[in-house]
Amino acid sequence: MTPPLSDPASDSGEDSARARGLEMMRQVYGWELGEPSDEFVALTVDHLFGRIWADGQLSVRERRLLLIGLLVGTGQDDVAELQLDCALGIGELEPDEIRELVVLLAHYAGWPRAAKLHTATEGLLARHARRAADDTGE
Fold it and tell me: What is the pTM of this model?
């Protein structure tokens, strides 16, 4: 279980939620966001990531797996692919785990959605493999 980044009960306000949110986004996506550019992004950082993702009851990996299932089940393929890309990029999921997830989702979200996810996933895995080979000079 992932511990909270800080105790929300001792949260002194927006600054603490912002710091937690920015750190959690870095953990989830693998990149630095910087200060939010507008009110919607600030709300996303402060509330969704600073409070909801950072509460510590579920790990980032568990949250991501639930989110991927929801996204695939509701046909939000672009966001599901983003989540898979980030999970693979930060080493949270391995290619075989992603492939297993696609097979599981085929039985719950529907074969057509999983077939589309399979195609996107194989492309994503190939891109990551090429990047890894380029990074190692193979």
Answer: 0.81
